[in-house]
Each structure stands twice: as structure tokens, then as C-alpha cells.
Amino acid sequence: MSLIGTEVKPFKASAYHNGKFIDVTEADFKGKWSVVCFYPADFTFVCPTELEDLQNQYETLKSLGVEVYSVSTDTHFTHKAWHDSSETIGKITYIMIGDPSHTISRNFDVLIEADGLADRGTFIIDPDGVIQAIEINAGGIGRDASILVNKIKAAQYVRNNPGEVCPAKWQEGSATLKPSLDLVGKI
Fold it and tell me: What residues does the Thioredoxin domain cover (predicted)?
């Protein structure tokens, strides 16, 4: 069953953020746009490249009113150790959530039960706490955060402009569509 259009399920977790441990719940996803980026594990190979790429887009995302949360089934202690020991991960200033209970990974349907690890899943959540977009990649395929930025801009546009939709390859400022009987069969 798709999670698109569903509200984020309740959870409570510990996270590492800018030198401190903090608690995070589903309530933190409300009132602003959020990106939740699941990855398999700390101290791995593709994961740091993705998390660094996400950090490189973080200022742009914040300028769009988006908060970023990375999640793995590691603990918040492991996140701190990785942050302190890796030059790449040491750059991260967004929230790194630990999910050793697998609650969040199950809630978002990305847990690989046999391995106890999360798939590479990215979720865009609107200010109401409702999931608007999902991307799931196989373990060996890294994600591109610049594509995520474009998806968020499209999701925000559609939310702010009821009755309009963004076509394929839509870029901010380009034409949108207004679905109607007149458009049927003409695109």
C-alpha cells in the first residue's frame, strides 16, 4: 500500500544534531516542509556520499522552508561517533535520527527485516505531516539531492496553487497545467 497522502505515524527517537542529543517525534514534521532520508548504515560507502550531497543542498532546502532528517537503524551515539571521525559526515548540520528499534523504518515501510537495515528511501512531507513524495533506491544506487530540491519546489507550487499541476521536467517559473476537459487528449 502506498504511503502517499498518509500522515506520518507516531514515533519518538533520539538524534544527533550539532553536537547535542535531541528527541524527535512525528510532531517535529508538522508546521514546515520536511525531508526524511533513510540510509542503510553509518560507516559505509554510498551513504556518506549521499549525506554529503544532502548537506551541500541544505542551505537551499532551508531557504525553501524545509528541515532535513537523516535516519538509519544505528543509534544516535553511532551518528555522533561517525560525525566526529569522518571529514565528510563532520560537515553535516541537519538532524541525524537513530532508529535502533526499527520503529521509524517500519512506519515508512523501508525496513529490510532480514538485515535490520533501512532501504535508501526519501520522503517529502508537507506542513500537515502528510507524505507527498517518495523515492526508494536499491542499496547500490545513490540519490541526487538536486533532484530532491526540484521535487520540493513542485510540491510546494501545487500546494500553493490549487487546480494546477506540474508536468514532467517542470522547473520553477515554467508553465504548469490546469487539468480540465479541454486538455483531455491534447497533451
Answer: 2-157
